[in-house]
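Take a look at this chain, tokens included, and explain the fold to me:
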Amino acid sequence: MLALQLLDGLEAGTDEAGRGCLAGPVTAAAVILPATFSNNMLNDSKQLSEKKRELLRPIIELEALAFGVAHIYPKEIDKINILNASILGMQKAIDQMAIVPIHIIVDGNKFKPYKNIPHQTIIKGDGKYMNIAAASVLAKTYRDAYMEKIHEEFPMYNWKQNKGYPTLEHRDAIRKYGTTKYHRMSFRLLPEQYSLDF
């Protein structure tokens, strides 16, 4: 059972999606839920089917006191690294909220101070707290929608299905067609090849 929040009042939960992908942005979301919020379906987005995530997204957006979503794109990821890009995305998502939170809880174990607002990192927080779970659903659904859009531009990578994750299909397409402007060039896009000389 997910808990609502750690503190009374305006607490934001934040999470990201797409950190391990070879292509596309890392997408972060932040959500402040009302104290009365309840939803039995809500959970860590990785534990939910795509259908359930799509059902939850409008509910979260309608009932949240505030929410924000931010994409950090591959060029920036390559410049500052994926960890810093993930943290930047979460902070930009908080920036977008119409309400300034009094406390921030973050999925994972890394974050950077944000505007003197106290924060706490929580490992597997998306499976423990509703505001982080809600953020995980928004991050995942917004990122998936972005990947489906750029799939139309480069259908050979089948991002509509693999969403840019390092699947065998995606890596085979990189071998065949090379990379695109959406690929993260600082990532190991293909496993290292070894050859034995006899």
User: Anything to note?
Assistant: Residues 130-151 form the longest helix (22 residues). The domain at 11-145 is CATH 3.30.420.10 (Nucleotidyltransferase; domain 5). DSSP finds six helices and five strands in the chain.
